[in-house]
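G., the chain you wanted modeled:
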Amino acid sequence: MPPSFTVVGSVNLDLVARVQRLPRPGETVSGATLERIPGGKGANQAVAAARLGAEVRFVGCVGRDSAAEEALSGLRNARVEVDVRELDVPTGIALILVDAGGENQIVVVPGANAEVDLVAQSHKVSGAALCQLEIPDAAVEQTRAQAQWLCVNAAPARPLTVTPDLIVANRYELEVIGEQPGLVALTLGEEGAVLLEGGEEVARATPPKVDAVDGTAAGDAFTACLVVSLLEGRDREESLRRACAAGAIAVSRFGAKPSLPTADEVDAILRG
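Predicted structure as tokens:
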């Protein structure tokens, strides 16, 4: 049986501009190309988990506007069960700049994602769940109250109001949320990731070498693969190694959802 869980999170339409280099403060850079790509950390992680073989339900909010169906199309194409509420506010938008080396700058306009707490209160969650911090604290708290097991990807970072079973964070995010008593996956970019329990290292992994194209959804691929691997019953070291591989594959491809790997692709890159 494949693992199944619910993602309570954000869904956006990403407006992605590719530039030769990122602008400095006050500078205008021309010559960009623009793409409209389904995104949002919650939706990205739901799609990533589905591609990795999990059965996934997504709970969130969109607006009653033309961006909504574009934003949801990635979830539907990945056969994620979509459980969203339409509201009289705009669908979330992310403005993303990506340079030739894969570095990015991202500004998120939350829109309907700021109302996900209304949905979390009325949509029951059981078993395992995954949240991110592009939704209100109240939505994460409601999910924690219902779920038997909860992972929180602490991005964008702010102090946590719940105690998850697993936290995924980078160095900067961990500084904001502080030391945690439970299981923490600390992502280290090209250096890989470390799994901490009670502040002590219990596993470490490094990613396969790839040519960086776009780092937009690397964290989403990592988080989803770590959750799926743990729910499949894999040990912590193997789960972390697979998560690093998934993140590396995502870095090597352009776009958010288009970059998310399948389980077969993770297996292949780990075989070398």
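The chain has a mean pLDDT of 93.

Shout if anything looks off.
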